[in-house]
């Protein structure tokens, strides 16, 4: 052989050795490729993790889990079976079975060898019967799942509900699969990622006829499910339940905050979803949507209302800061304020003139019209537009006009009108305080949520700062964002808040016959400080509003009650808010106020106002 032939043969032998070595590595030494080659003969069955529990601030379980049972099907494996026996074991109609089988046939390419849900939440008796005879039904299996249960009727809209993922959910959450459960509203939605845990799986082998023949590698390659994380909320379950009872048969909201932390103690939107509705959301969803009272609409964070007279506290504080009024400044009131030769903003009858604290106590409209006029027209800023812009800056520093940034979903920001808005309405340079005087008493173009007003009350209780209201509490499993610890200061100096606090204390604790607007809210032994509001409603009866906090020093709770069509602030909102304060601080309602509690529990506006205003 010549040298050329020897080189050619050597080269061919080298290539052959490389191929043989590679094949040996793939087939003998590297198990990854062996597993990959077997992939088409393996079946993966998901293991659903238990969803995390939700607790209240005191360790009571608000949302628990219970076992549920699903009938699963692997359509490719389904053979002939006794349909009559199948239906009798499960307690289902033949038509329902045939409908499901037809659905599997239509979607056979998409389903492939997947195992899918055939019937959800079958009774435990059906589960037991079928389990005993399951070997008669090739291609069918049983899965133990978890469902939510609710030990307390506390916060249906607050807690939210879970349901099976929709097509849009799958697009925005590619890590979810068809049949997965997802939080749709409330805390369940906001904290879904932590609550859901991580899905595991078991791997099973198929034979050459695609029949399951057992676990793959004795389960060594299975992935266990990771349970969801538990969440501790700031809610007080007993207080939440009590507030819901007081708000029953009324439309509106009640929000209670711990001022020093911004933690939400109670958040009620009425009418609300009951926990029974949450547990059976699939059956009641359509009727809830059709209800004219809109129980799925969370008024506490989504309804934009005029604040009414509780907003006088904000205008009064701005006036003190700007120096247009002092605590001793007195203004007259003759049943209202004449803001033009022919127009008057009315007020209830009371003695006159009043100083600043008395004006808060008696909720005098005229007093705060004078203050507002001086803020807009007699300010050092040159003209009405500049004075208004400064006023708006002050108001925004209280958190109004935008979402507060709470950890509750779908929070709205309300509205504080801008100078540009009034320029478009009245013309540039053509408007003054008389055109917008209703803003002085919390009417007109102002819109805010009850959460905004609860935050205002907490800000006054703290003498000038607030912490963003939030509903999830720090716990070993969940760390809250640092922004829920940060103090947000208004543009008002702390010293001016004492005058508003004194006026609010007088409004509640001065007694009947003093001209005070809220003696009905007084509780012996608790110095509740409060402010009434009556918000005009162009669609019907006025809304009843009351905000209060207690005790006066080192406050533990700040509350806003906003009752649609409830009339004067002292008639409905003040009793309800004060009962919540008393219940929280004293643990029970005193004998001398039981009559008031009974009246509020039995009071109903739903019959008087059958449609939404």
Short structural description:
The protein is of the alpha+beta class and 613 residues long. Helix content is 36%, strand content 17%.
Describe the protein.
The protein is α+β, with helices and mostly antiparallel strands and 613 residues long. Helix content is 36%, strand content 17%. The chain contains 23 helices and 19 strands. Strands 2, 3, 4, 5 and 10 form a five-stranded mixed beta sheet that branches. A five-stranded antiparallel beta sheet has the order 12-11-19-18-17, sandwiched between helices. A three-stranded antiparallel beta sheet has the order 1-8-9, with no helix packed on it. Helix 16 packs across helix 21. The protein is elongated.
What overall form do the CA principal axes indicate? elongated
The termini sit apart by 105 Å
Helix content bin: 25-40%
Beta-strand content estimate: 15-25%
User: What does the largest sheet look like?
Assistant: 5 strands, mixed
In the predicted model, the low-confidence regions spanning at least 5 consecutive residues are none
Radius of gyration: 33 Å
- Structural class call reads alpha+beta
State mean pLDDT (0 to 100 scale).
88
Number of helices: 23
Number of strands: 19
């Amino acid at each position: 052989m010549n040298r050329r032939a020897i080189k050619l043969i050597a080269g061919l032998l080298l290539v052959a050795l490389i191929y043989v070595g590679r094949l040996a590595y793939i087939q003998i030494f590297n198990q990854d490729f062996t597993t990959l080659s077997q992939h088409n003969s393996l079946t993966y069955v998901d293991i659903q993790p238990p969803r995390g529990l939700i607790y209240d601030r005191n360790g009571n379980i608000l949302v628990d889990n219970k076992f549920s049972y699903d009938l699963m099907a692997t359509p490719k494996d389904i053979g002939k079976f006794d349909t009559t026996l199948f239906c009798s074991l499960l307690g289902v109609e033949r038509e329902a079975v045939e409908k499901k089988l037809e659905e599997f046939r239509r979607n056979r390419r998409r389903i492939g060898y997947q195992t899918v849900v055939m019937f959800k939440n079958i009774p435990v008796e059906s589960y037991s019967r079928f389990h005993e005879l399951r070997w008669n039904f090739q291609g069918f299996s049983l899965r133990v799942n978890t469902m939510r249960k609710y030990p307390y009727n506390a916060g249906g809209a607050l807690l939210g509900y879970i349901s099976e993922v929709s097509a849009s959910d799958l697009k925005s959450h590619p890590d979810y699969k068809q049949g997965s459960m997802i939080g749709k509203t409330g805390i369940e939605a906001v904290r879904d990622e932590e609550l859901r845990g991580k899905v595991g799986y078991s791997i099973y082998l198929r034979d050459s006829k695609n029949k399951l023949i057992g676990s793959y590698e004795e389960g060594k390659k299975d992935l266990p499910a990771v349970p969801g994380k538990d969440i501790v909320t700031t809610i007080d379950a007993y207080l939440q339940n009590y507030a819901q009872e007081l708000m029953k048969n009324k439309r509106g909201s009640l929000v209670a905050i711990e001022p020093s932390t911004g933690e939400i103690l109670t958040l009620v939107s009425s009418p609300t979803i009951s926990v029974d509705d949450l547990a059976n959301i699939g059956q009641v969803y359509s009727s809830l949507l059709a209800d004219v009272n809109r129980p799925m609409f969370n008024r506490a964070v989504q309804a934009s209302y005029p604040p009414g007279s509780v907003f006088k506290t904000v205008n009064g504080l701005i006036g003190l800061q700007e120096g247009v009024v002092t605590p001793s400044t007195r203004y007259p009131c003759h049943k209202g304020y004449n803001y033009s030769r022919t127009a008057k903003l009315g007020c209830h009858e009371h003695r006159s003139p009043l100083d600043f604290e008395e004006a808060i106590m008696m909720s005098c409209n005229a007093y705060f019209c004078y203050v507002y006029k001086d803020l807009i027209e007699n300010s050092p800023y040159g003209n009405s537009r500049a004075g208004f812009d400064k006023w708006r800056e002050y108001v925004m520093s209280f958190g109004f006009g935008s979402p507060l940034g709470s950890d509750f979903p779908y929070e709205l920001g309300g509205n504080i009108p801008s100078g540009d808005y009034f320029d478009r309405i009245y013309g540039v340079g053509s408007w003054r305080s008389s055109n917008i005087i209703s803003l002085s008493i919390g009417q007109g173009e102002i819109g805010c949520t009850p959460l905004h007003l609860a935050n205002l009350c907490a800000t006054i209780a703290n003498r000038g700062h607030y912490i963003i209201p939030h509903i999830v509490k720090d716990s070993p499993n969940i760390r809250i964002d640092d922004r829920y610890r940060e103090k947000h200061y208004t543009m008002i100096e702390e010293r001016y808040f004492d005058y508003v606090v004194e006026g609010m204390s007088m409004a509640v604790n001065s007694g009947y016959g003093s001209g005070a607007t809220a003696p009905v809210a007084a509780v012996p032994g608790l110095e509740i400080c409060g402010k009434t509001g009556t918000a005009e409603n162009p669609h019907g009866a006025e809304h009843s509003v009351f905000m209060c906090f207690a005790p006066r020093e080192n406050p533990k709770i700040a509350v806003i009650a906003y009752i649609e069509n409830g009339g004067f602030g002292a008639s409905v909102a003040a009793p309800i808010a004060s009962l919540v304060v008393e219940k929280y601080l004293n643990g029970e309602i005193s004998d001398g106020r039981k009559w008031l509690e009974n009246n509020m529990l039995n009071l109903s506006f739903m019959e008087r106002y059958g449609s939404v205003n």
